[in-house]
Design a protein that fits this description.
The chain is mainly α. 85% of the residues lie in helices and 0% in strands. Helix 3 (25-37) packs across helix 4 (42-79).
Length: 80
């Protein structure tokens, strides 16, 4: 019976609530981690894992720009 609950599709209301909660700044990140690594609904789990992958890529790109342009700003300020 529990396997059936883990495989059922989420309706629009549940998806809306899931996306709303995940969009909250700190609580959303924590909930995405919980959903990605828990034994809950398989569809929400897969969505959360994909969202985490996108978050890691976005953070890596943001850090790369920060170090690149921040380093250029420090060097140009040091040279003047």
């Amino acid at each position: 019976m529990e396997q059936q609950l883990n495989n059922r599709t989420l309706d629009a209301k549940e998806w809306a609530l899931t996306i709303f909660i995940s969009s909250l700044p700190l609580i959303g990140f924590i909930m995405v981690l919980v959903w990605a690594f828990s034994e809950g609904n398989i569809h929400r789990k897969n969505w959360a894992q994909g969202t985490l992958i996108l978050m890691v890529i976005a953070i890596a790109i943001a850090l790369a720009f920060l170090f690149l342009f921040g380093g250029l700003a420090l060097v140009s300020n040091w040279l003047n």
